[in-house]
Specification:
single chain
Length: 364
C-alpha cells in the first residue's frame, strides 16, 4: 500500500505538477509584463526596476542556501560552478535588459508573440550541447521535431491571423489598447521585435546553462538566490552609469512600487524557482515548449478579464499549437520511458548477478 502511494506520488510529481506549474507561471508572466508596462508609462526606469526587483528577490531568498544544505548533501562549490553561475547571471541580466527595453518600445503582446521562437532556439542549442539526442531513426525524435515546428506555426497563426470574430467583448474599446501599442509606431514595433528576438535567444541559452549547473550542483533555490544576487549587482553597476538622475531612484507608493513587489515575489523568486526545478527535472526543451502558450494565455486572460474580442484565428492557432505541444510532450515521455526501461533492466541485472555468481561458485 505504501509503495503504491509512493508510486502515485512520484507520477504526480514528475508528470503532472510540472505542467500545472509552468502553465501557472506563463499566466503570471503575462500579468507581470502588463503591470511593468503600466509602470514604465508612469516614468519608471527599467534599470531602476531591475536593481530593486532582483535585490528584493535576493533578500527574500537569503535563507535558501541554509535550507538547501540542511535538506541534502551537496557537492563542494568549485571554479566550474562559480564561473557558470557568473555566466548565467550575465546572460540573464542581458536578456532582461533587452526584454524590458522591448516592452517599452512595443508591448507585452508582441513579447508573447516573439516567445514562440524559444522552443526552436532551445532545441537547436540543446542539440549543439548534446542535451537532446537527434536520431531520425527513432519515432520520438521525429515527433519532437515535427511537434516543435507545428507548435511554432500555431503560435504564429494566433499572432498574425485574426479571421472572423467569434465572441464580442463586453467593452467596445477593450481591444483597442493592444492594437494601438502594437501598431502606433512601425519603427518602434520593429525595434521591439528585434530586442525580443535577441532576448529569447539568450533565454534559450539561459535554460541550457542553468540545466548544466543543476547537474553539477542540484540545489535549485540556492542557485536562484545566487543568480538574483548577481543580476542585482550587475544591473546596479549598469544603472549607476546610465541613470544619473537621483530622483529616478526614489520609488513612490504607486503602480511602480506594486510592479516591483509583484515582480520580485512572483517573478524573480517564484517563477525562477519553478523554472529551475522543472529544468532540473525535465530539461530545457520541456520548459521552452511552454513559452508559446503565453500568447494563448494572453488572449484568454484578455477575453475573460478585459472583455477583449475572440477571433477565429486565435482558436485555430491555439488548436494547432496544442497539437504540436502534445507531440513534443509525447516524444519526451517516450524517451523518458525508454530511459527508465534501460535503468530498470540495468538494476535488475546487477541485482541478480551476485546470486548467479553464488550458484556458479557452488557448482564449482
Amino acid at each position: 500500500m505504501a509503495s503504491s502511494n509512493r508510486s502515485r506520488y512520484n507520477k504526480c510529481y514528475k508528470n503532472v505538477l510540472p505542467y500545472v506549474a509552468l502553465i501557472s507561471m506563463e499566466c503570471t508572466n503575462v500579468g507581470l509584463n502588463t503591470l511593468y508596462k503600466a509602470a514604465t508609462l508612469k516614468g519608471m526606469s527599467f534599470q531602476v526596476f531591475m536593481v530593486y526587483c532582483y535585490a528584493l528577490a535576493a533578500f527574500l531568498l537569503l535563507p535558501a542556501p541554509f535550507f538547501s544544505f540542511r535538506s541534502r548533501v551537496l557537492p563542494p562549490v568549485n571554479f566550474s560552478i562559480i564561473s557558470k553561475t557568473l555566466f548565467l547571471g550575465f546572460i540573464g541580466c542581458m536578456a532582461q535588459i533587452l526584454g524590458y527595453t522591448g516592452i517599452i518600445y512595443s508591448s507585452p503582446t508582441l513579447s508573447s508573440a516573439i516567445s514562440n521562437l524559444v522552443p526552436a532556439f532551445a532545441f537547436i542549442l540543446a542539440i549543439i550541447f548534446r542535451m537532446e539526442k537527434l536520431s531520425f531513426s527513432t519515432n520520438s525524435t521525429r515527433v519532437k521535431i515535427l511537434g516543435t515546428i507545428v507548435s511554432i506555426s500555431g503560435a504564429f497563426v494566433v499572432t498574425l491571423y485574426k479571421g472572423p470574430k467569434i465572441i464580442w467583448g463586453l467593452s467596445p474599446a477593450s481591444h483597442s489598447p493592444s492594437v494601438v501599442s502594437l501598431g502606433s509606431s512601425q519603427h518602434n514595433w520593429a525595434l521591439g521585435g528585434l530586442l525580443f528576438t535577441s532576448e529569447y535567444i539568450l533565454l534559450a541559452m539561459w535554460y541550457i546553462v542553468q540545466t548544466q549547473i543543476l547537474k553539477e550542483y542540484p540545489a535549485e533555490l540556492t542557485l536562484v538566490f545566487v543568480y538574483n544576487l548577481e543580476v542585482s549587482i550587475i544591473s546596479a553597476i549598469v544603472g549607476a552609469f546610465t541613470v544619473s538622475d537621483s530622483s529616478s531612484w526614489r520609488i513612490k507608493p504607486d503602480i511602480a512600487l506594486v510592479s516591483i513587489l509583484c515582480s520580485a515575489v512572483f517573478g524573480m523568486c517564484l517563477n525562477s524557482g519553478v523554472h529551475a526545478w522543472t529544468l532540473h527535472l525535465k530539461g530545457p526543451l520541456f520548459v521552452a515548449m511552454f513559452k508559446p502558450t503565453s500568447i494563448v494565455v494572453a488572449i484568454v486572460m484578455g477575453v475573460i478579464f478585459l472583455g477583449d474580442d475572440l477571433y477565429f484565428g486565435s482558436v485555430v492557432g491555439a488548436m494547432i499549437l496544442s497539437i504540436g505541444f502534445y507531440m513534443v510532450m509525447w516524444g519526451k515521455a517516450k524517451e523518458d520511458t525508454m530511459k527508465d526501461d534501460v535503468v530498470n533492466s540495468y538494476v535488475s541485472s546487477t541485482s541478480r548477478s551476485p546470486l548467479l555468481q553464488y550458484y556458479k561458485n557452488e557448482d564449482e
